[in-house]
Amino acid sequence: MTLQDLRYVVTLAETRNFARAAEACYVSQPTLSTQIKKLEDELGLALFERTNKRVMPTPAGFELIAQARVVLEEAGKFHQMAQQALDPMAGPLRLGVIPTLGPYLLPHLVPRLRTDYPRLSLYLREDLTANLIERLRTGLLDAILVALPIQTDGLQLIELFREPFVMALPKDSPLAGKSEVVETDLVGVPLLLLEDGHCLRDQALAVCGLPQPRGAEDFRASSLETLRQMVAAGVGCTLLPALAADTAGGVGTEFAGTGLIELRSFAAPVPCRAIGLAARRGFPRMEMVRAFAELIKRCAPHGVELIASSGTPAAASGDGKPDDLPSRG
User: How many angstroms separate the CA atoms of 221 and 18, rounded?
Assistant: First the structure.
């Protein structure tokens, strides 16, 4: 039995497909299948049920695969501790990020990351919050960038910044004539939402004072860019985080495909969401995680409020200088 055998088993349990597992492990499918069969023979029991249509762990396999994850994580810690002793900012950083944040924040970070920490290799996974937390807890990710609050049992959380929301409106919307929007303006306005599982969906409903919608008439998109295009088509309005709206100051008009959308700030107190970086408690490379958190704060784009370690906000203007920005809570 080797660590590589355990990696094959864990990967197959995650993918439920021999071909995809072999591709993820950079080996041929016969090699992966043979090694897993040898491990099962050594253990004297089957770890997986195999049919023409599916592969899934056996009852005994579920328990052994969970332990295999623990073994691999502890083996990884051994190497990470040695690496950190040499250079805490060298080696891989497996980062998870929610899709409503990653495309709009990471372009500000990656160039600086390459300059400041050239020996750090960033591996990204974009997914919903619940999936990222699960992968963080099982050791498949080192840290995750998510909207707060989250369940922090067993996790260490570093609060980074608060990001205000803006309204995206069709160009012919009556609200486009206003310089600022208040929550009461949104009563009766068709609201476009992300699909279930996106934390931004619940935040949008809370900001607009709406219950969870029911029924087929509820439009649900898989991305903010889809919502932006639907607004441009005049279907309704939506709530956008400031980085996704790229307002750089609050209000304005922007193109979305062949249409126009109007962006309007909220009147004070401006609704916002908090963004944080989470890692497992006891993670051996926490110095790297903390350095990455400070890099995010240094490179934070204009229009977000940095959260100091004491919890006191200080707005960012893209160069670390303070700027005035109202916030809610």
Answer: 32
**195 and 169 in contact (C-beta within 8 Å)?**
no
Q: What CATH number corresponds to the domain at position 223?
A: 3.40.190.10
Nearest residue to 93 via CA among 114, 70, 74, 65: 114
The b-or-e profile of 239-255 (16+ CB within 10 A means b, else e) is: bbbbbbbbbeebbeeee
Residue 281 burial (C-beta neighbours within 10 Å; 0-12, 13-18, 19+): exposed
Q: What is the pLDDT of residues 179-193, one digit of tens each?
A: 898 888 887 788 888
Q: Which tokens in the block code for residue 205? A: 């409903």
pTM score above 0.70: no
- Supply the DSSP string of 96-125, one letter for each residue: EE-TTTHHHHHHHHHHHHHHH-TTEEEEEE
Contacts of 220 (CB under 8 A, 6+ apart): 193, 194, 195, 196
Size (the chain), residues: 329
Tokens at 122, concatenated: 């960033």
Q: What is the mean pLDDT of residues 84-95?
A: 79
- Of 84, 114, 131, the domain-final residue: 84
- Angle (nearest 5°) at CA 201 between 199 and 203: 75
Q: Map tokens 């107190």 to a residue.
A: 269
